[in-house]
Amino acid sequence: METAFRGGAPKTDRTRSTFVFGNVFFHLHSVRTHRWSLRWATTWGLGMATFAAFVITLVTGILLMFYYKPFPDVAYQSIKDIHFVVPTGRFMRNIHRWAGNVMVVTVILHMARAFYTAAYRKPREFNWLMGMALLVVTLGLSFTGYLLPWDQLAYWAITIGANIAASPQEVTNALGITQHFDPGGLQRLILLGSDTVGPEALIRFYLLHVMILPLVLALIVAVHFWRIRKDGGLARPVDADQRVGPITGTYPVFTEQPKKTYQLAAIVRGKTAAVGKGPEATVPSMPHLFYGELAVLMLTTLICVALALLSDAPLKELANPMVPENPAKAPWYFLGLQELVSFSAFMGGIGIPTIVLLGLGLIPYLDRETEGTGEWFGGPGGKKLAMRSLLVGFGASLAIESFVIHFGWLREWFPHIPQLVITAINPGTLLTLAYGAYSVWCVKKYSSTRAGAMALFTCFLCGFIVLTVIGTYFRGPNWVFYWSPSQWPGH
Amino acid sequence: MPSPWNASCSARIGGPMSETQKTGRSRLDPEPVSRRDVLGLMSLWAAGSALLFGLVGMLRLPKAAVLSSPSKRFRVTLPATLAAGEAFTPPGRNVAVYRDEQGVYAISRVCTHLGCIVKPTEEGFECPCHGSRYDHDGTVTKGPAPRALPWLEVKEQAGTLYVDEGSNVASGTRLKV
Prior knowledge:
The complex is a heterodimer. Chain A is mostly helical. Chain A contains 20 helices and two strands. In chain B, the strands form two sheets. A five-stranded antiparallel beta sheet of chain B has the order 1-9-8-3-2, with no helix packed on it. Chain B has a four-stranded antiparallel beta sheet with strand order 4-5-6-7, with no helix packed on it. Chains A and B meet through helix 8, helix 9, helix 10, helix 11 and helix 18 of A and strand 7 of B.
């Protein structure tokens, strides 16, 4: 027993430290944590909630693998088995599905949190990129996940997804070079393992879902967490010590300067942890940080369990390659993308997402300011700028959508217009341009790149929300706009 | 950024190097590298390129050399009652086959936008997924579809009609029967 629980229950600061760095699972944490990082308003626990949701999907996903069979038709039957026959199968599948959804929500909110507190700034630029990679992998896991039941949703999502991968052909065809240079066709072929949607495609997406993407995710999560340590914990304002005030309560702060040097450990350059200074406004991670993390883990689990009890994961009819559903809708987090894709497959499915990712990735390298780091809406303009951008973001996307829904687009006005024109000039690209222009205007007005970044990020968030809501609630059969599903025509 | 390799190498041969500098070696001349370092670097590069080649070879695997897809050519028996301009969909095939006074023709029902199956209607075809519309000969009239629906080759052999989904023909091509 003693080798398993070395040192017993931690009662002093020294044993609390040992508790953290003497344990492979805890030692990713710093031994002591700044009290700024422990405030709920600093992070709202969103990163930890994302990780908790990932752990829940991991555990339930492994359980589902006992029964799931990755082969067309059989896959559908095995999901039915899980749903109706397997003990706790339905509950596990529901939790798996809901935790996946929670993970998508929290990863987006976590990203917004990191952005609005300017936590991406030096030295955290690289971790911002890791976070973006995690967002992409999370969406990849969600996508490959709902393909597996081989119901109507799955089949048509695979078909559409594979054709989005092939959509560079929209450009290469228009230029007439597809025979010589066909990156789209290659992507589709590699995703499907065939030129039709069938068993090869299902096995590939299964492999991606249960093996490749989780491994990639775990790897990047490790880097993401490790970088938090290396970058000196969470971002906080310069005057965080004064703001949290003097420490009160049971756990005292060391007052003496540490005597230890790190010469023997060969750390002789740069800022290392607490060399030559006291531990600032820190408290032992055990128990303060761990109790907070445990609370988030429990809350996330509670939410997933509650949702799983309230609502069953959907399963549509068995895949029918002859008839797509009408309307064939993706899960909510892709409906914004589906709305964009309904303007142009290439720009909506690949072009604009790439531009958005590039823009987000460039933000920490363009924004070299220091004002407002670690503060909500910190930086020039602050909340006022965020509110203004919210108005512009919602206004522009609503205006352009209303215009298209009411008046249609180029193809209807000029039936013989070249496809390249529609690919380049469509509501999606115009909206992206408008957001870009507004952001540049903000850079000029406030003479601050942070202001431009705030404008752009807020606008993209608004665009995502508007497109998602329109895709979810206002698109009916044949992707026509309806005010409510009750107006949908009968079949 | 100075590479750690160079740092360790110059540290190791620091003594002799300062002597060479005294003897008047131009600073443009390459720095002397010990034989040991050359061999070490070469083995590193060899290992690196071997891994790279291995990786490229492994990446070849997911692209299948033979595709398992079913035959794209299939037999069609048109119902005797098929009216002119009325679409006939052979079972299991996403193709609309028509017969009129000028002959028989087939139009693919796979939307050129993202591959959903379009539905023949009074006006032409409509796609359920992203709202593309086509007229009777497959020309795009609305929505994101980049190309017209392809017309497929129809052949007659020994009194039986065959349609080939893998072979496109010019719009308006009909087979006289």
